[in-house]
Design a protein that fits this description.
Blueprint lengths: L2 H8 L3 H13 L4 H17 L6 H7 L13 H10 L6 H12 L11 E4 L10 E7 L2 E6 L2
Antiparallel strand pairs: 1-3, 2-3
Length: 143
């Protein structure tokens, strides 16, 4: 993503950026899968390691959430919504808010990674498998 788009995303409240991430990464997944994606972000924030600092740092770290990659077709949808936050589906905002505030429990335990069942990332063999929800497999980095 270019610097202008990054600054746009950085200007959003955490809850809105997390809602956009959940939308971009798990649109079409069941509710629990959407919550799982949000909790992966929250779990990475809690780890305070290489994942990035805070919700914005974790989400916008290059190559971590594919919907923010320059070549991903979802990026333009996210940019459009970032310019018009009232058009973000309320469900995504409620999930983001509930996961940030802790009143939506994690369906993925303390997972820090996930991938779609149709891809085979090299990193998965070094992770502990947690759960499959919809088309996503969730993992925790072993430390």
């Amino acid at each position: 993503m270019n610097e202008k788009d990054k600054q746009l995303f950085l200007s959003l409240p955490d809850v809105v950026l997390l809602a956009l991430c959940v939308y971009g990464e798990s649109r079409g997944e069941p509710y629990a899968g959407k919550c799982g994606v949000a909790h992966v972000v929250i779990n990475r924030v809690k780890c305070k390691t290489w994942y990035g600092k805070g919700i914005k740092g974790v989400i916008l770290k290059p190559w971590q959430f594919s919907c923010f990659n320059t070549n991903d077709p979802n990026l333009q949808k996210l940019i459009d919504l970032a310019h018009n936050p009232p058009y973000i589906d309320e469900q995504y905002l409620e999930i983001a808010d509930g996961c940030i505030d802790g009143y939506i429990p994690s369906p993925v335990e303390d997972a820090t990674h996930y991938h779609n069942i149709h891809v085979n990332p090299s990193w998965k063999n070094s992770m502990k498998f947690i759960v499959k929800i919809g088309n996503h497999l969730f993992y925790k980095e072993e430390t």
